[in-house]
Amino acid sequence: MNTITQQHIQVGEIANGLPLTIPVYRIKGDGSGPKVYIQANMHGAEVQGNAVIYQLLEQLKQLSLKADITLVPYANPIGCNQKSGEFTLGRFDPITGTNWNRMYINHSGLVAEFVEQNPTLPITEIAQQFRQRLVERTQALLDGPLDRLTTGKRIALSLQRLAHEADIVLDLHTGPISAKHLYCPEYAKDSARYFDIPHVLLIPSDFDGAMDEASFCPWWNLQQAYQAIGREIPVLTEAFTVELGSQEKIDLAEALNDANSILSYLNHKQAFQDAHFMPRDITRYVCRLENYRAFYAPMGGMVEYTAKLGEHIKAGQTIAKILRMERYLSETPLNEIKLDEDAIAILHFASASVNQGTELYKFFTQVETL
Ligand SMILES: [Zn+2]
């Protein structure tokens, strides 16, 4: 049995003086594998990742580990307690309105100087020394004047500091009502074959404030900068956002499937000795981010969502019925909404009542197989 250690890291304090803390679990391997960081529940309602971390810990404590693995459930101690009535909110900071997953910082600015100072450094040294700079720069921001960081930034940077220690970063989210899908940087496309996730969204290596991007962008830029001086190195870190399914739901049996999917990927990355985890033989559909289509409600009303998530929709197929009862005597009360192209339905809005312009669905279009 491996030893699991627990630490509580303070990421802020609230008005009555109580500390905001996150639980950090660590399991150490024999040092010959990658360093792995997995966090869950940055968005308050997206709770299933906590169950996946539970199922991961249950298995990791019995495996022969090469990798050092750090797991952080309840990554956002404000978000998961942000309730309104019986529902959890927690997608946006309630004070500033900023998305909790857009407050990480891009350290790609460290790249140019590092490459200039270390043009011929061996790859293992590059990995170690650049990683150290990322950690130190993040720590310096946390140690800086207290009046420089917002509540959300302090939480994000505390998590980012932990993530920068790792070669592999997984940020566990869910959609609103959603099929499983994976946000995968284009350079790491081949790794998507090892997750049991049938829908893969390929994202460019740009930075928009999310954890996955904060984790891989500096490494992607480092690879590009070495290439520019005529030296080929791999991108030394992989980071993914794993969208597990729907929000406001814990399903322990499904969490075990998702844990096995993650273990299959980690096994491919040499995290274990003699482990049996293999990807399932499924078709994986790929969509580029620019073809990930948001479909906004063409009218307000009460919605029956008729497209099943993961379903392959044909152009002209009805995807929703919108009920308008104030029109019952005068006009058409029931309106069929159709899609004008072939697509895969990935997620839909969580509520049945929508305003005109609400994001009703998101679809993979121009789909290919991996
Ligand atoms: Zn999320």
From TrEMBL:
The keyword Hydrolase applies. Residues 33-268 form the Succinylglutamate desuccinylase/Aspartoacylase catalytic domain. Keywords: Hydrolase, Metal-binding, Zinc. The keyword Coiled coil does not apply. Its cofactor is Zn(2+). InterPro entries: AstE_AspA_cat, N-alpha-Ac-DABA_deacetylase. CDD domains: M14_PaAOTO_like. This is Succinylglutamate desuccinylase/Aspartoacylase catalytic domain-containing protein.
